[in-house]
Amino acid sequence: MASNVTGSRRLAAVALMAIALLTWIAPSARAADQVNSYAVEGVVNADGSLSVKATLTFDGAAPNTFEQQLVTATRTADDLEYRYRITDIAATSGAQALEANVTVGPRTTTISIPTAGSAEPVTLSYVVHGAAIATDDGASTTVRWPLLQGLSVPVATFDATVAVPGMFNVIDCAAGAPATPGACTSYGGGTHDSPNPGFHDEGRAAGEVVVAILRFPKGVVAVNEDLRQVWSLDRAFSAAPLPLGIAAGLLVLGGLALWAAHRKVGSDAGIGVQPTPVAEFHPVGPGQSEFRVLDGVRPGEIGTVVDERVDPVDVTATLLDLAVRGHLLITEVPPESAHAATEWTFSRRASEDQLQAYERTLLDAVAPVQGEPVKVSNLAGSVGAVIGQVQSELYDMVVARGWFARRPDATRNRWGLIGWVALGVAVVLTLLLAAFTTFGLTGLALIALALGVLFVAQEMPARTAAGTGILGGLDALRGSLLTQPVDTLPAGAGLNQLSMILPYAIVLGGKDRWLQAVAAADADAEPDSTDLDWYHGPEGWHLEDLPASLANFVTTVQGTLFSR
C-alpha cells in the first residue's frame, strides 16, 4: 500500500515539472506583439523604379493577420502632389505564398496579410513607381521612400540595404512619426568597402516610418515622378504677380472699353443744343399767365423722354390727361362700408380731340365705347392684357417724334442680352480657370465686366439731338412747375388750367402745390362733386378733398395695373 502512494507522488511531481517546462517555453508559441526584426533589401533601378523586399521576423508566433499601409500621394506646401504607384505586391512565409488582400484608396494602398500559423519569417515585396524625383535645378535625381511605414505592429529593429545603379552624392534617413520624423539611429554607405547604402533604426511604434533618401547625379537614375497640381481655393484664385496683374489689367481695359462704348452708343446727341420748349406759362395780361402745351406733347411722352422708359406714372398721367382732355370721366364711388376700399369708375366721353395710338389702346381698355363703366378694381382684367401694347406704342411714339433713333427698350434689351451672354460665358470660364489653372481672378474680372455690361445696358438708350433739345425744354418746364405762382392763372379759367397742369406736374414734379391750388379754389361750403368736368366725387365731396382723392387714385391705379 505504501508503495502505491509513493508511486502516485512521483507521477504528480513529474507532471508538475512538465507543466513548469511547458510554461517556460510557452512564449515562443504565443502571438507576437511586435516585429522583432524588419529587414529590407531594396534595389533602385536605373529607370527610377524602386524594388522593396521586406522580411519580418516576429517576436513569437506571427499574428493572424497584419497590415501595412503604403502612402501613394504626398502633398507639398505649394499645392503640388506626388503620386506613387505600387505594383507586383507579393507575400510569402518561407516557401509558402500568402494571399495578400490589397485595398487601393485615393491616397494609400493597404496590404493585409493572413499569417496565422506561419512559423517562419514573412516576406513582403512590391515595386514603387514615382519615387525618383527631379531636383529643382534638374541636375540631380532624388529617390525618397519610407521603407518602413504604416505597419500595424511595432518594430524592434529596422535594417535596410539598398542596391544602387551608380554612385550617389547624398544620403539621408529620417525616422519617427510620419508628420515630424527625426534622425535614424545610423545610416551610411557609398564607400569602397560599402558601396551600397545601409540604414538602421530601433524602437519604432506601430504606424511610424523610416524614410530612406538618396540623391544621384543626373543620368544615373531616370526621373519617374508623377507630379500633379492639387486644387485649392488659394491656388485657383492666386494673387501671385502674374495672375493678379492680368486680372487687374483686364479690369482696367474692360472698364475703359465699357466707358468708350457708353460714350459712343449711350450718350445723347446734340449736347449743348438749345432747349426745345414743351409747354409754357404764356403771359395773357398783367400778372396773368396761361398754361399752354406746345406741339401736342403729352405727359406719357414726357416721362418716357426723361428716364428713357415707360413707367407706371407715365400710364397713370396719360389716364388723367385723357380725362382732362374730355375723353374720360373718372368717378369716385362712395365706399360700401367704413372699412371698404375707395372705388372709381371710368366712363367714355365723346371728344373731337385727336388720340395717339397708345392713348386709343389705353382708352378702349379702361372705357370701351359701349358697355358699363369699368371699375378700377377690374382694371387688372380689362387693361392688364394691353399694358404691354400701350408701352410698346408709347416707345414707338417717341421714336416717331424723332427723340430717339431706336426704341429705348429695344436698346436696353439688346445690350442686356449681350450682358447676360457675357455673364454666362464669364461664369463658365471662371469655373474652368479655377479648376485647371491659377488664374481664377481673371475669371472674376470677366464676371465683373459682364455685370458692368448689364449695368451699362440700362444707360445705353441715347436721345437724338431733337430729344436732347426736348429734354432741355422739360428741365425748363419742371422749373416753372415748381416755381410758377399758382395765383397767376387767368380769372374764370382757373380750374381748367389747373386740371391741364396736373398730369404734367405728376410726371415732372410739383403736383402737390397745384393740387393745393385746386383745393384753395373751393371758396364756399357747398359740395363740389361735379365742379370738375373730368373728376366727379361722391355726395358731399369738396374740391379740398381732391389732393387726398387723387393721391389715393394714383396709388391704386398703379398698383392695380403693374402688380401683375
Sequence stretches where pLDDT stays below 50 over 5 or more residues? 1-30
Structural class: alpha+beta
Major beta-sheet overview: 8 strands, mixed
Tally of strands:
25
Strand order of the largest sheet: 7-6-10-2-1-13-17-16
Distance between the termini: 121 Å
Radius of gyration: 48 Å
Helical stretch count? 14
pLDDT average, as an integer? 88
Shape: elongated
Domain module count? 2
Q: What portion of residues is helical?
A: 25-40%
Q: Indicate the proportion of strand residues.
A: 25-35%
Account of the protein in words:
The chain has 564 residues and is α+β, with helices and mostly antiparallel strands. It has 2 domains: 31-230, Immunoglobulin-like (Sandwich); 279-405 and 462-562, no CATH class. Helices cover 37% and strands 26% of the residues. It has 14 helices and 25 strands. The chain has helices at 2-25, 233-236, 241-265, 299-307, 312-324, 357-366, 379-382, 387-400, 408-436, 440-457, 465-483, 494-508, 511-520, 546-562; strands spanning 35-44, 50-58, 65-71, 73-75, 80-83, 85-93, 96-98, 101-104, 108-114, 122-129, 132-134, 140-148, 155-163, 170-176, 182-183, 186-188, 198-204, 209-217, 226-229, 279-285, 288-293, 328-333, 343-348, 374-375, 535-536. The strands form 6 sheets. The protein has an 8-stranded mixed sheet with strand order 7-6-10-2-1-13-17-16, with no helix packed on it. A 5-stranded antiparallel sheet has the order 11-12-18-14-15, with no helix packed on it. The longest helix has 29 residues, at 408-436. Mean pLDDT is 88; it is low at 1-30.
